[in-house]
Amino acid sequence: MNIIALLFFIALIGSMWLLPSVTPALGIALLLFSVIMATSAIFKKHKGSEKAHIKIAKDISIFILTLSLIIFFGGFLGSLANQYTSLHFGTIVGFVSAIATSFAVGYLVKKGMGKITGN
Question: Looking at the whole model, is its pTM more than 0.85?
Answer without folding.
Answer: no
